[in-house]
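Table S2 (continued). Query chain:
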Amino acid sequence: MTHRMDQRFAALAQEGRPALVTYFMAGDPDYAASLDIMRALPGAGADIIELGMPFSDPMADGPAIQAAGLRALKGGQTLAKTLQMARDFRHQDNETPIVMMGYYNPIYIYGVERFLSDAVSAGIDGMIVVDLPPEMDDELCIPALEKGISFIRLATPTTDDARLPKVLSNTSGFVYYVSMTGITGSALPDTGKVAAAVDRIKAHTDLPVCVGFGVKTEDHARAIGASADGVVVGTAIVNAIAHSLDADGAATPATKAGVCDLIRSLANGVHNARLAAVE
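Corresponding output:
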């Protein structure tokens, strides 16, 4: 069983700061450029990597991540290649936790047993499968846990105290608090409400609570990180990639550089989050 996630959160707790959790779409805009970005993330300040699995019908995602998925699929990205990307990353980095994030359909088609076996060998630490509710834990969640892969669940502002225990029942790694209703990439939520929601979730679990949806800048990361155990950034990273591509949709020298500049800025916000809270 891998314990990279637990080790990372324990180390960050010692440092007294939240994690920076960075999402990008595997294969966007192509395999080589995407792997190059992934390899650069930890050095720029990412603590945990969320590796997006491209899917043709991403119902919970906003336009930016939908477009990234379509670019990746057009470039030939598959679930097998996404697992290979993690495997290639692990040749250089065996410490940064990797969480695969996406939808159940590609995993179901790939085959659950085969997928979990390949995920373990590729060095995957956790999964977020947004369209599998707790009532379907036997499908993937329980088999994943048995393989030592954390199954990370989403909680939202509409997840009340009656529902939370069910949502948290087989959750491990961390809890992902979606700080607003709606699709990814929306406006920044009210930080006071986020802090109250984090406290409410923590009353039900000892797991770290990471907050995402709407974080785009260093100031956002600092504000959210004051109360959360982790700050999740996705759409802003995906947009940085999209805005750096040439007229043909290909990566440019500005692609990795732009993402790294953004990550460094976000990491600075996260590193100073608790200092801001003390002040």
